[in-house]
User: What shape does this take?
Amino acid sequence: MMRAKRLFQTAAAAAAIFLVGLGTAGCGSEEQETEKTSLRIGVSLYRGDDTFINNIRQELEACAKEYEQETGTKVRLDIQDAKGSQYTQNDQAERFISLECDALCINLVDRTAATNIIDRAMEGNVPVVFFNRQPVEEDMNRWNELYYVAAGARESAVLQGRIVADRYRRDPDSLDLNGDGVVSYVLLEGESSHQDSLIRTEWSIRTLKDAGVPIERITGGIANWERSQASALMEQWLLEYPDAIELVISNNDDMALGAIDAMERAGVSGIKVVGIDGTTPGLQAVEDGKMMGTVSSDKEAYAKAIFEIAAAKALGEELPENVVLEDGKYYSSPQRIVVEN
Ligand code: GAL
Assistant: This one.
């Protein structure tokens, strides 16, 4: 993969003289001028086995290496898996702060439960970059050293709707398999508490309707972003609605792949499937012609934004020009449509 060659803007800052705390836990109070030659960043993932999050993790590790090479600053990226437990994640954050991490990158387990982590970070004066699972606005407004990085949910859904609408315009028969003038779809949704699930579902369908595609919902279900859960749902739907399903709209690639697994097991072909994320297996399925299309997040830009905000804020530096924050806090990574040939 071609990595951006831009020099990290914070290179000079890394070697620059600035203030760091000494002795006590967290970024302490006793301050003294010293040269910063290393950065320690604590990262906590809501679930390390989530495919998309894993892709972001790999990019984060690549970013840290690139930063080290370009700036000569040693980076210690401490990545922990909260395994779906907010308690575990709170402990991890607390430990990162007691180990004097310079910044935290948190992929919240429960996006409504950021209070504890924010309290500890404020006490220790450690900036926090949340990502992918958005804290509620009230929490984000508590401190000016809180940031949020994600791929815009509405944008991804509009692009997903466009994949289907463009296909329908070019070749309606490939979606309206029984020729009744209507595209009958099933919908796979992510976690009910996740901001992306609701927004993606709403805007994907809205885009299709606005584009004039005649659609009809057969059924839908929550599969919590998971391939195996989606596969089980699709297996059941194929039995319940034989020969009726023409399209699977999925809130992410993993669930789309689960639907494809079920179709392969049942020996069913022809049903079109669309996802979101552009994960490594998702992109492969599009290339193999198994998935009609996906909306691919620029994972390199996504991870780079997380890392650069964390590094710049830890060093008290300005953000590089390529990381533009909305309202001084929010970064949205670019996304693009990827479709089968
Ligand atoms: C979504 C992504 C899903 C899953 C989820 C986890 O944005 O599309 O695949 O990773 O985040 O929070």
